[in-house]
Amino acid sequence: MTKIQAWIFMATAAALLAACGGNGKNKDGDEEVDVPDGVDADTSAEPDGAGDPDGVADGDGTADPELDVPTEADLDAGEDGPPPPPPGCPVGFDTDTGTLFYVDPATGDDANDGSEAHPWRSIQHVVENLVDCTDQDGVPLNEGAPVKSGDTIFLVGAEGHDQTVEITGCYNTDYVKIKALVLHEPRVAFVHMRGSAYWRIEGLTFFNDSGGTMFRAEDHDVRGEAHHIEFMNNHLTSGELMAADEFENQASTGVWLLGADHVTVQCNTFYKVGQAMTVPGEYIDILDNRVEFFAKDGIASSGAHNRYLRNVFFDAVKQNDTDHDDFYQNHMGANPDTSTDLEIAYNVFMNRYSDALPFDLQGPTQCLCAFEEGPKTNIRVYTNVCKPDHYHGNTWGATHDSLFINNTVVGGT
């Protein structure tokens, strides 16, 4: 499929979806869909939080968001570098809260007061020593330190920042932001959160070509659970990889959550990565992200009360003759898989869209799949557009009391 054919397909699919209305009726609007007991039949209202700047549900019942269908100007996306973020992104980047602090490796000193005129030098020093938080039991850590819950820490400049940032056992009561002063200018390799809460990582560039991970948040046996984390407006890449062995050895996982809950991953771009997102858990929102060239799965996930809305995925990378990837697979090694209350809607999954990689690197891809034994319940998959080219389009085994409506799947190469 050429890119112009792909664009025609997506535009046609969007028109078909609009004709169906996405509202629980047929295209003529005169026949209700037989919705299983226990499933919300009102798909005419927006998905919870859709259209809200922070993705938080408000129940206002406004119109469905438009599907992110590429324009003709998007057809060359990826040929000259990373793709643009989805429409509406970055979200909330112009909003700063609390006292503003600054970290500048070029001019800073950790003995300074962290003001714009007298910045600190090391973000690792700041998160270890200068944030007034508590441990999981409410015992104060760094009591009286300058950075309080709700404050913002700006990273200034592109180079010289700590490449690995460890945040361990530091619990806030409102989000502390680690944020780029200039969108995507500061560059780091890995942020690791263990047993911490109320942190936001925003606007950074993650460059990691080690075959490792760029952002990881996890529960910790000693330091406690990880929760209430926001990862927003970041750019993640393993560099300009152009060969199978480069993707095999250098492509890093973008986002990896291990037990963390109440996590929002929104308005990030992933470009030439390994696995884009591994996100099992509960109360996880994956919203408005764009992925181009992934060497494993796009999203591997399972859990409960999770939403995957308005994301755009392009192009799997082939690493060997038997390799195939999935845009989304509900599989984290758990069998049976008892996921419940999942919402997957308004996403675009398009394989072999760009010709920016050689043909022999373009890999086969399946779309929305869940193969493990269940029961999986209250799964709502609607108004997605997908062009896979492997065995499965929209396949969910052992799934009950669920809703699958208004999805467009077209196979073939």
Q: Layout of SSEs?
A:
Layout: H1 3-20, E1 100-103, H2 123-129, E2 133-134, E3 140-141, E4 152-155, E5 164-168, E6 171-180, E7 187-188, E8 190-194, E9 197-202, E10 205-207, E11 213-218, E12 227-232, E13 235-237, H3 244-250, E14 253-258, E15 261-266, E16 269-273, E17 277-278, E18 281-282, E19 284-287, E20 290-294, E21 299-300, E22 303-309, E23 312-316, E24 325-329, E25 340-345, E26 348-350, E27 365-370, E28 376-382, E29 385-387, E30 394-396, E31 399-400, E32 403-405, E33 408-409
Parallel strand pairs: 1-4, 4-6, 5-8, 6-9, 7-10, 8-11, 9-12, 10-13, 11-14, 12-15, 13-16, 14-17, 15-19, 16-20, 17-21, 18-22, 19-22, 20-23, 21-24, 22-25, 23-26, 24-27, 25-28, 26-29, 27-30, 28-31, 28-32, 29-33
Antiparallel strand pairs: 2-3
Main features:
mainly beta, 13-stranded parallel sheet, globular
